[in-house]
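During the reporting period the student researcher (J.K.) took over the structure-prediction task from the postdoctoral fellow and processed the backlog of single-chain submissions. One of the processed entries is reproduced below for the supervisory committee.
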Amino acid sequence: MTKRIKTSEALELMKEGTSAGGFVLSDVETQQLGFRDALLLAENGFVVPSGNIVYDDADIEYDADFDEVEWRGEPTNLQDFLVSKGITHQAETDTAISIEIAVEDQAVRHWLEKNSPKLKRIVEKLVIDLYHTDQILHAK
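J.K. obtained the following structure tokens:
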């Protein structure tokens, strides 16, 4: 049985370094949370409704890589963004790499076979984004 605790109690536990795993937040739907607290909860596996996150623009640190970008209202492809910043170079050709996934559960195996084309696109984007994120983190 999972224990229900208040959001403030969970935040205290997490800030002290104690795991809040196994708990259910009893009041997260009604709490107004600062973005730092909402991020801490999300990092620990809790879902915070976006309408419950409040912030003051004065609390947000200036970031030239983000703030100096002219946003067009649509997401920019990460690869194009990294090329524009000189962090990486445009790939000239695509090379296919195969990965084997061993799954013992028959239901999961059937689901993978059924959804293979969708998963291929998702995994391709995921791997590319993971690589570029790693490059950004280690570029500093």
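The committee noted the following: The longest helix spans residues 116-139.
J.K. will present the remaining backlog at the next meeting.
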